[in-house]
């Protein structure tokens, strides 16, 4: 019988820019041969210092225009962060909406 068991790594401190994420995980877990480690992009971004304070972002004209046309009507500053991290935008409504929904481009928060 095959099974999948998900076990969270407990006891990790709040990750800050410059933290050695691998060392933190290793110190708080015991991996066995065959284990698969899954790490959320947000914690990786935090350790890499790729955190943006939303209050420090100024939305440009493109971000304002795109945000107004998205179904979720996100804060234009969030759209600006996505645009700042994008190489190019092929179809703004679909691409930006997906990036904001999945937060794959960059993690940002008013609280960080």
Please explain how this structure is put together.
- There is one protein chain.
- With 112 residues, the protein is mainly alpha-helical.
- It has 2 domains: 1-49, no CATH class; 53-109, no CATH class.
- 39% of the residues lie in helices and 5% in strands.
- It is built from 5 helices and 2 strands, in the order ααβαααβ.
- A two-stranded parallel sheet has the order 1-2.
- Mean pLDDT is 82; it is low at 104-112.
Name the features:
39% helix; 112 residues; 2 domains; 5 helices; mainly alpha; single chain
The number of helices is: 5
Tell me the total number of β-strands. 2
Average pLDDT rating = 82
Count of discrete structural domains: 2
Using only C-alpha atoms, the radius of gyration works out to 18 Å
The strand order across the widest sheet is 1-2
Structural class: mainly alpha
User: What about the largest sheet?
Assistant: 2 strands, parallel
Broad shape: elongated
**Helical content (DSSP H or I, runs of 4+):** 25-40%
The arrangement of helices and strands along the chain is HHEHHHE
What are the low-pLDDT stretches, counting only 5+ consecutive residues below 50? 104-112
Amount of beta strand: 5-15%
Distance between the termini: 44 Å
